[in-house]
Amino acid sequence: MTDLSYLLETILLLAVPFVPVALGAILRKKFPAAPETPPSGAQKAGRLAGNVLFWGGIAGILFVIVLFLHFKGKLF
Amino acid sequence: MKRTFILILLALQAGAALAAEPVRWGDQEYQAQFKYFIERDAYERSSWEELAPEAREKALSDAAEPAQSRQEAVAAYYAKAMEKWDSSRLQDYCENTAADDVASVKVWMGTLKGTLFENKLALARAMLRKAQAAGLEETDAAALRPHLTEDAIANLRYLKEAEALRAQSGGQFKKHELPKKTVDATIKGVSGALSGNVERNMAKVFDGDLSAGVAGSSFLGGKYAVPKGAVNGAVSGLSSQTGAFVAGNTAAALGAPRATSASTIKSAAPASLDAAGKAKSTAWTSDAYGVTVETANGKKSYRDHQEAEAAIRQMPAGSVKKITLYGHGSPGMQTVGPGQYDALYTAELLDGKMAKNGVIQFSGCNTASIGDSTLNPAVGLSMVARRLLYFSLPYWQDRADGIPAAQAKQQWEKEWNADLSQDTSKLVKGAIVCGYRTFGLVPGRLPGLTRLMGNQEATEPGYVAGKKVCYQNGKEVPAP
Lengths: 76, 480
Prior knowledge:
The complex is a heterodimer of chains A (about 80) and B (about 475). By secondary structure, chain A is mainly α. Chain A has helices at about 1-15, 20-30, 40-70. Chain A has one domain (about 1-70). In chain A, α2 (about 20-30) packs antiparallel against α3 (about 40-70). The radius of gyration of chain B is 26 Å and the shape is globular. Classes of the chains: A mainly alpha (about 80), B alpha+beta (about 475). The interface of A and B includes residues 14, 64 and 71 of A.
């Protein structure tokens, strides 16, 4: 049981950096850059949120990679 | 006949019940395993009694082998520690023996032997301090005779004379200096031998043991094995004066000449600290670390942590306004190059030296606990990385090594969020102790930027991107 809960925790922790990227990708797909009709304010906001989450998420993943690359059994 | 059959059945049942009786806490038959549990905080009486009989059997059987090897390692360590020390070993034991080591001896060898070791260490440390400050008297030498070699005692006596010599020469030590060739060759031999020891100490905390989840399980056995032979070899045939240089005990008394010879000894290292700080490096990656001490007389940086420690030990009480320890950090630990600092060691070094509201700055990652929840995504990601690297990773490695889940959980749940800054602030009363709750990113350490900025061997971090926190007497206070 202990192992199972920690396995779940590890998977969730590893997934955390990918969550905003996935959300951003969904929003970007839902609110395309060049829609057939002119976008409303809400659609523009949705697209912007998608972009922020997507690229912010990618930046976050890179940040975590930088942290992990610094790990040699000791970190700074 | 029927009655006999019933009696036999009852006897068999009673026997079975007896066989299934769970092993009690502290059972004599499993002494080694229980000592192992106690040392690693794996179980205590209450948590043991909550375990099912089968789980107890499994825990005991899993711990049998590591407990046996740990017992042998501590016994060997104790036997070696109770031999007469030469100068190198005196220095090594006094500097590197942590309270945990003494506690381990008490657990495995019994309170009596543990106390004997503790007393020997306390006496040695006190006499080392006295030898540096006031010199040894005949009664002191007699007290040390059961514990130290005659050469080591003679070297301790020489410390004070060396101090007097330095004072007489007014810092112009060159005419009293030993031939550099001899000193350099000698010290090279010793530093080579000691570096292996230092590496093992590092591994104990960071690399092998931490990542393999066996922290503290094997370091005692080999801790002093290499230096003894190598140091003896390096010292043999040299005069007692050279021996004193080699032992490093004279480092404090002979501050000036040691610094003079350092530039030639460490040919691979920069010529001097100031040059290191100013000269532009063309290296792509960083090897930055150092100790910076601020007093009323100004600020001084040291690349060599031992040199810094020797200088600090000579400083008058209440003189350190700020000290920055710069290097790598991890929960509960900070390194400065090959040196390592936990709360106890830092407190011992700085005990009484800090000025009122003086600042101890740990410039290393994760040198404080993660603290409260936050909306800052960078801090959040840092916390995620810390949990993964300092809990999940060692936990799964322990499990892969066959360590019981409960034991691995208990070990790493305690370790991953350790707060070096707070623990230190509780020990160094009145001082403000600062550290980082997160990973600290220093631009000058990033590969490539190191080359642009030319600060490969910087001794101070400059800007640090991280969440800083400060404590005073264990309570959080605003950063000074």
